[in-house]
Amino acid sequence: MFADRPPADPYDLFADWFKDAEAKEINDPNGMALATVGADGMPSLRMVLLKGVDPQGFVFYTNYESKKGTQLQGHPKAALLFHWKSLRRQVRVEGEVTQTTPEEADAYFASRPKQSQIGAWASQQSRPLSAKFELEKRVALYAAKYAVTRVPRPAHWSGFRIHPRYIEFWQDGAFRLHDRLVYHRQEEGGWRTERLYP
């Protein structure tokens, strides 16, 4: 059950829930479903990993030439879903999307394992692959190129930040009488909360 007086800031509640998920969720507590919309108006959904959260929003990184990258650049709105099955909780987020700064992307890229950095160069994400050998050859090419040097961040690889206007916290309840608490961002700043029927 949620407290009668929930935190004024949804990021405080998210931080508490995320800490619980890190302690109890078996795999990828930072895994989140990301929904985008294409030029044809059709929704598209996939799992990505949360790599940062701050009062400005939720951050993840990807290839900007991928399907999700091109969709977000063309239609910069998205929805997220965190589902922590072991905790019987989920969090839904909806909002506008902006690109992270080059400095943020550089710092995160530098923290990745070298093989992941090389993979960012080698993978032409979301484009047709004729054979697995084609990808392996590209990995070998970039591995040789950066064998003894630092791997720079590709220009096509960076981050997005979802700026929430809506955050919903859902907690499983007995007999399907679930608890739902919603935060709505206000134009003048701050958040308005409301509870929803299950």
Mind explaining what this structure looks like?
The chain has a single domain (10-196), classed as Pnp Oxidase, Chain A (Roll), CATH 2.30.110. With 198 residues, it is an alpha+beta fold. 28% of the residues lie in helices and 36% in strands. The mean pLDDT is 95. It is elongated. Strands 1, 2, 3, 4, 5, 6, 7, 8 and 9 form a 9-stranded antiparallel sheet that branches.
Relevant terms:
198 residues, alpha+beta, Pnp Oxidase, Chain A, 9-stranded antiparallel β-sheet, 9 strands
Question: How is this structure best summarized?
Answer:
With 198 residues, the chain is α+β, with helices and mostly antiparallel strands. It has helices spanning 10-24, 67-74, 102-111, 114-122, 132-145, and strands at residues 31-37, 43-49, 52-54, 57-63, 77-84, 89-99, 157-171, 179-185, 191-196. Helices cover 28% and strands 36% of the residues.
Sheet/helix structural class: alpha+beta
Largest sheet: 9 strands, antiparallel
Q: Please give the number of β-strands.
A: 9
The CATH first-level class comes to: Mainly Beta
How many DSSP H or I helices? 5
The assigned CATH architecture is Roll
Helix content: 25-40%
Query: Could you give me the name of the CATH homologous superfamily?
Result: Electron Transport, Fmn-binding Protein, Chain A
Oligomerization: single chain
Poorly predicted runs of 5 or more residues:
none
What's the mean pLDDT score? 95
N- to C-terminal distance: 13 Å
What gyration radius follows from the Cα positions, in whole Å? 19 Å
How much of the polypeptide forms β-strand, as a percent range?
35-45%
Taken together, the total number of domains comes to 1
- C-alpha geometry: elongated
